[in-house]
Every structure is written in C-alpha cells, then in structure tokens.
Amino acid sequence: MKRTTIGILLLAVGAVGTSSHAVADDLLGFYAGASIGESHVRTTQPILGDTDFSYPFDGQHGAWKLDAGLRPIAPLGVELAYIDFGNPSVVPTFSEFGGLTQAQAKALALFAVGYLPLPVPFLDVYGKLGVARMHLTATGLSPAPICPIDAGLCGGPPFTVSNWSANLAYGVGVQGKLGFLAIRAEYERISANGGDPDLLSLGFTWTF
Predict the structure, then answer these.
(1) CA 89, CA 41: separation in Å to the nearest integer?
(2) pLDDT tens-digit readout, 16-63
C-alpha cells in the first residue's frame, strides 16, 4: 500500500513541477503549511511486574501535520512541525496474555533542512534532521488470570501508559513550486525507544 501511495505523491509533485517551470524560483523566506497522510505507529511496553516480556504494537492510521519554517538561503533552512500520527488500534494476537490494543503518538519536532542544488528551478529535493519531543499513549489489556481456550478475547483489566520522550527525528522530501505555493511529498520518522513512528504525507506550503 505504501508503494502505491509513494507513487501517487511523486506524480502529484511532478505534475505541479512541470506546470510551474516558467514561474518558479527559490522560495526564500518564511513559510507555513499543512499535510495529510498515513502513519505507521510501532511501540513496545513492558508488562507490569514482568521485566522479561514486553507487549508489541504495530498499526497504521491516517495522520496529519502542521509546519512553519524559514529558508534564509537556497541550500539551508529550519522548520518546526507538529505531527499527529493518529490513533491506530489492533486486536492482540494472544489475548489471554493481554496486549496493547491502541496507541496514539504526537510530536513537536525542530528540523534543520538541507536542499540539494538541482539545475531545475521548479523542483526541490531535501533532507531533514532534528529533534522531536514526543508524547505516546498506549492502551491495552493486562493478562487474564483464567482464560478458557474457546473464550476468545478475554484479557484482564484494561491499562493505559503515557510517556514523554526526546528523540532524533529525520526525513526526506520533494516539492514542486508554483509561485509562492509548493506541493510537498515527505517521509518523516522519529527514532523512539521501543518503536519508530513514521509518516508518509502529501501537503503544501505557502511562502510569505
């Protein structure tokens, strides 16, 4: 599914870039924008009182982000982004032992952005590296004391864990420029302990 999504994003940016060949320049200065896309949220959380086993979680969900940045010179810029990775849910594989059923991740990230010096004025390819302050909330079912084989989903009492962490964040992107408007396709990821949430998105920025 993600390969198809990547293809659609690149075609969209390419179409904008082709149509803007005659009017685009380096979009220098302050900009702001928004994006929507698909996230992949992964995490592991230890079972309470058990240090030898952790519950894994792996789910996908619709996501969005807002960003604002400054590009004072053509090759370099700085960007602040708020990313909501959504709230995916899954059914635990072995429900009698409990497991995570839902996870929600949000982050505020500060990036340094580097742009490749391309000979095409309507297209930018760039990389992002920075730090993110992430809030992760995970909900699950604790192990059931007694669970008959044919009982289905019979985990114990529900529990919720919530934590904040500071992590490395990085990404890559391509944008097609049309006047003060840019259409962006991006991939961003946060390196967090126990799992790395990521986002594949399509959005726009407007330079003021």
Answers:
(1) 10
(2) 444 444 344 578 999 999 999 999 998 887 765 555 667 788 899 999
Look up the CATH number of the domain holding residue 119: 2.40.160.20
Q: Quick check: is 139 in a domain?
A: no
What does the buried/exposed string (b/e) look like for 7-36 if buried means 16 or more CB atoms within 10 Å of the residue's CB? eebeeebeebbeebeeebeebeeebebebe
- The model's pTM is 0.80
Are the CB atoms for 138 and 194 separated by under 8 Å? no
Give how many domains the chain has, as a whole number.
1
- Determine, yes or no, domain membership for 49: no
- CA dist list (Å): 114 to 23, 77, 128: 23, 7, 7
Q: The domain containing residue 173 runs over which residues?
A: 2-43+56-86+100-133+161-207
Q: How many CB atoms lie within 10 A of CB 151?
A: 11
**Dist CA 170 CA 81 (whole Å):** 12
Is 51 exposed, middle or buried (CB count within 10 Å of its CB: 0-12, 13-18, 19+)? exposed
Q: Residue 5: how many CB atoms within 10 A of its CB?
A: 15
Q: Which three-class secondary structure state does DSSP give residue 117?
A: coil
